[in-house]
Write a structure and sequence with these properties.
By secondary structure, the chain is of the alpha/beta class. The chain contains 17 helices and 19 strands. Helix 3 crosses helix 12. The protein binds S-adenosylmethionine and iron/sulfur cluster (SF4).
């Protein structure tokens, strides 16, 4: 990887789990009514064909990790569990009233925060509350995020019993100095135990999240983390670039200073080394950030061209409608997005009044829908096509200028009705998507909103 390319393209940019990206949502034109009708339309079109996805945000963690960019609330009080589960079920009930038909659940993901903060019984109550009011779609996939330090056999068994077959564990890095800096002490034995327990119980896909670019992290640390990973051989791996976004998370990330972070060049080397070592172990890169063994459904769906990307990252199948329940969750009807309020008290108050607790969103127009499709294609398949009868670039000359420059840097190949990202261009796929992102081009953010692309 040439340093000159890294220097040229390492700019602040979105990760494109949605288009338009969240800071570009047109909140002014959004209303709860518009959101409800866009979801109803999407549900009626797609529920019986492919089912819907559910994301449930469980925000509590017992202890704060100082690198964490997720929406979480730190507490040791487990009395928060029951009211929260009841509130999520109430929210689900409001959606059931709106949809007015039994949903087919294709994907269900518990994210956080730390889902394993909740007791196995409470998790079971939550899932049963959903399943009792819906049907299961064919080949449904239920997954959850587990913290290796507190995922017990009972958690794994309880969730297995209600249909979960996939778990992902946050690992980040095995080195103690790094772990101390991010306030997350987590010995290899804990990850080993949680991984082996899941397999013993019958989970068919165990994932690990590891991160490069963390404070004090060196190339040797990345290498050692991958050696440990090799020993446990998770079916899937997320290999994330550390997103340093302290301006959003406030003091939560100030457990170390900017000077303790690796330089962009070192970060890029960590990524390159990690990628090389993961390939040697037998992992295949899936889109951006994700790796999987050949036996995992994510790899298979990439092979079949079914890979999809949404707010949860890459998924093995596409549903047109995704409902996010819980504080801060984002929902996606394909025609629109909405986000729930972030504060727990506010969330409870709105639900008490039988109001779906969204506070902002975006309804997509024609142009948004076209660009959304191209960005999704690029992120999932490293290529995108358009009808040759419609000269896409005549209508959007701004896009072409940027793409031609990237073509001269050999990051992509432009054909009459197709763009294909080269191997060399794959690490820069976010930059390529940015060329299509007309909203970003029309209005550059006044302050830094996004993490660096490289
Ligand atoms: C909600 S957390 C995982 C679940 C559980 N709370 C845990 O920590 O094990 C999901 C994953 O997001 C990733 N993550 C969180 N903050 C991040 C950041 N600032 N940059 C990159 N990845 C981040 C971590 O890899 C983390 O495991
Ligand atoms: S990394 Fe996981 S456990 Fe740590 S604060 Fe974030 S959500 Fe909570």
């Amino acid at each position: 990887m040439h340093n000159s390319l890294v220097n040229k393209y390492n700019i602040a940019g979105p990760r494109y789990t949605s288009y338009p990206t969240v800071p570009y949502w047109d909140d002014a034109s959004f209303s709860l009514e518009a959101w409800k009708s866009s979801l109803k339309k999407s549900f009626d079109e797609s529920n019986s064909k492919e089912g819907i996805s559910l994301y449930i945000h469980l925000p509590f963690c017992e202890s704060l990790c100082t690198f964490c960019g997720c929406n979480k609330r730190i507490t040791k009080q487990h009395s928060v569990e029951s009211p929260y589960i009841n509130a999520v079920l109430k929210e689900w009930g409001l959606y059931l009233n709106l949809l007015n038909d039994k949903p087919f659940i294709k994907e269900l993901h518990l994210g956080g925060g730390t889902p394993t903060f909740f007791s196995p019984d409470n998790l079971k109550k939550l899932i049963n509350g959903i399943l009792n009011t819906s049907e299961l779609a064919d080949n449904y996939e239920f997954s959850f995020e587990g913290h290796p330090n507190n995922t017990t056999r009972e958690h794994l068994q309880a969730l297995y019993d209600v249909g979960f077959r996939r778990v992902s564990y946050g690992v980040q890095d095995y080195n103690e100095t790094v772990q101390k800096a991010i306030h997350r002490i987590q010995p290899f034995e804990n990850v080993k135990r949680a991984t082996e327990l899941a397999r013993e119980i019958g989970y068919t896909s165990v994932g690990h999240d590891i991160i490069f670019g963390l404070p004090f992290q060196t190339l040797e640390h990345v290498e050692q983390t991958i050696l440990n990973t090799k020993e446990l051989l998770p079916d899937r791996l997320a290999f994330y670039s550390y997103a340093h976004v302290p301006w959003i998370k406030g003091s939560g990330q100030r457990g170390f200073s900017d000077a303790d972070l690796p330089s962009p060049e070192l970060k890029r080397k960590q990524y390159e080394l990690g990628k090389k070592r993961l390939a040697e172990v037998g992992y295949h890169e899936i889109g951006m950030d994700h790796f999987a063994l050949q036996t995992d459904s994510l790899y298979k769906s990439m092979q079949n061209g079914n890979l999809h990307r949404n707010f949860m990252g890459y998924t093995a199948s596409k549903t047109q409608a995704m409902i996010g329940l819980g504080v801060s969750s984002i929902s996606d009807s394909w025609y629109g997005f909405s986000q729930n309020v972030k504060g727990i008290e506010e969330y409870y108050n709105l639900l008490k009044d039988n109001i779906i607790p969204v506070y902002r969103g975006h309804i997509l127009n024609e142009e948004d829908l076209i660009i959304r499709k191209h960005i999704l294609n690029l992120m999932c398949q490293f290529k995108t096509t358009w009808s040759s009868t419609l000269n896409y670039f005549e209508e959007l000359p701004e896009v072409l200028v940027k793409l031609e420059e990237m073509e001269s840097d050999k990051l992509l190949i432009i054909e009459a009705n197709k763009i294909e990202v080269t191997k060399k261009g794959q690490p820069f796929v976010r930059n390529i998507c940015m060329a299509f992102d007309l909203l970003l081009q029309r209005k550059q953010p006044d302050t830094q909103l996004f993490s660096m692309t490289v």
